Amino acid sequence: xxxxxxxxxxxxxxxxxxxxxxxxxxxxxxxxxxxxxxxxxxxxxxxxxxxxxxxxxxxxxxxxxxxxxxxxxxxxxxxxxxxxxxxxxxxxxxxxxxxxxxxxxxxxxxxxxxxxxxxxxxxxxxxxxxxxxxxxxxxxxxxxxxxxxxxxxxxxxxxxxxxxxxxxxxxxxxxxxxxxxxxxxxxxxxxxxxxxxxxxxxxxxxxxxxxxxxxxxxxxxxxxxxxxxxxxxxxxxxxxxxxxxxxxxxxxxxxxxxxxxxxxxxxxxxxxxxxxxxxxxxxxxxxxxxxxxxxxxxxxxxxxxxxxxxxxxxxxxxxxxxxxxxxxxxxxxxxxxxxxxxxxxxxxxxxxxxxxxxxxxxxxxxxxxxxxxxxxxxxxxxxxxxxxxxxxxxxxxxxxxxxxxxxxxxxxxxxxxxxxxxxxxxxxxxxxxxxxxxxxxxxxxxxxxxxxxxxxxxxxxxxxxxxxxxxxxxxxxxxxxxxxxxxxxxxxxxxxxxxxxxxxxxxxxxxxxxxxxxxxxxxxxxxxxxxxxxxxxxxxxxxxxxxxxxxxxxxxxxxxxxxxxxxxxxxxxxxxxxxxxxxxxxxxxxxxxxxxxxxxxxxxxxxx
Length: 608
Description:
alpha+beta; 9-stranded mixed beta sheet; 18 helices; 31 strands
């Protein structure tokens, strides 16, 4: 089925190993989508939603044991543990590869092996990465069609690169990243299939040295859609370090001023900090009336590289959104809601009596009756949620009303600002700017969110998540921070770096800042700082806004006093912050850049 010799050999190897009943090469066509979605409906994996309310859309329900990424079963497999570092689960590469061959032996008996050629990033971009995933899950195939460039066109490109009939544009010309996936439930004699096959024994394994991915036992999300976190972050971060670019867990947002000046911002936030809402921000009426516009390039992953024009450029390697449904509504994120009107896959949300979907936070009033994500009757009196907290929607990015005209530009978009932020009820001001690149890397490396043990089952305090990348760095996290510092030598026009905190509380425990669309006001200040249009106020922690330079028109409740509270800087709280950072510094000590140690000491000196 392919003229690419290495690919043909690998597929033959996987076929012999997995022993499927048949092999199907996926072409990414509408006909294939129609056939596979109907197959999934017939099997009971999919429920076809009401075509009048949600055209060409489906609901899937997973098993309760397969509902999210399994970080504890996610491995970076190298020859030495130091290459994976202290924040990753390490496995010796040869031993894990032997185990994977053992697990995959006969794993697809009674099933079809689907071969999915796919490309992360615009196919003609220099950073584009082609992968080929084999899987025994039709659910994975239809989700991958939304999330990546997929099918016969990508296979043809790979073949033409190999034969020399395609121009050498893509780094990795003629090469592909092999991605092996199975749900781990062969249909051997006497075994009956189920609507959501999976295995309690799960492995998500990355081999940075050989550039391959093996995933066993899970059919859910990033465990099974191997182009997403596995390739686009863990493997890509290793490639990026070797070739002087960056694979980051960042949104890419376009901001156009009334004068027509376009500014692109990338931003990194840990989970539950409003990342998707910011990526799809709608300017409030005061801004829209003046002519401000927002566009989205990407909501989750950014690949950034030094462009020949001297600035840092970024592409979004994905073509879809795999977003968390609960909490998403027309009040919180109307752009996301409009993006999922049709051609969408919903997983682990509730089903309404008229054949639509529902989840907590979608409407103010709960429906009188639903079928919950486990398939049971549900009423508002039920103590359990109707949708799983990690329920998802998979929606094509091209359906987004604010998609940027350059979102598929192979040259990417120029980044003027990099923003970091976390959920902090105190200490961190609403917004401040780093003094320079090194200081900005320090802010990103030490950012985090406060958690309570009751809420998430984690130790109370600040959970540090460097650049929101801690679960996704494909190598030693200390070396990753070195790479961030080294990148400044590659970029002539460095982006400005900022820290934001939408979640600061007043003395009554209420949010000081309204957030959501009003975050445009913070973004406007960031844009004006990038273009040198306003002065900043120098403090011990960075540059902060002057009240008169921060647009509060229309925010009647946001008085100068409230602004000062939101921007307050308490030296004693920051001294406690320095102590809190020590756990991260000790964990990474052997490989932590000394420059970040010096940044911490400089801040300590400024606080005295």
